[in-house]
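In the current project phase, our protein records have gained a structure token line. A sample record follows, to show the layout:
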Amino acid sequence: MKYEVLWKNEWKKLTKFMSVAISIPLIFVFISRFFANDMSLEVTFEHISILELPLFFGGIVAFSGFFSFLIALYIKVCAVVVENGKLIGRNYWCLKREIPISKIRNVSPFSNNGIEALVADGGVHGSVYIPMRTAKLQELLNHLKEEGANIDA
């Protein structure tokens, strides 16, 4: 059974975050430039008209939407599959790994550089990262526990 990652929600959140993270510093630059130039709109906006500002910020949102879509597609490929007694998923470097469920030593939380996941450690078989934003995550963990994986979560 395939356990999909909720990538559309991540796409929306990343788009909002990136848009705000890019726009707020630019707004501060415009405000500081406005006050540094004796509150003159002509000097502050000499390279861009005030009427073009909505297009400028719309471009920032479009840029954020495009790149967050690429990141969301990357997140989408991190779906986990359970079939034939094996857990199939991606490791830290996004390489595909297969771990026999009975060989899973433990499942521990992992959080680093924005990656929030559960790590299924299969010893010599490697590890599989299960994203925290996986649909039916609790059902997956219960299924792994029923199959004999050592899960304390």
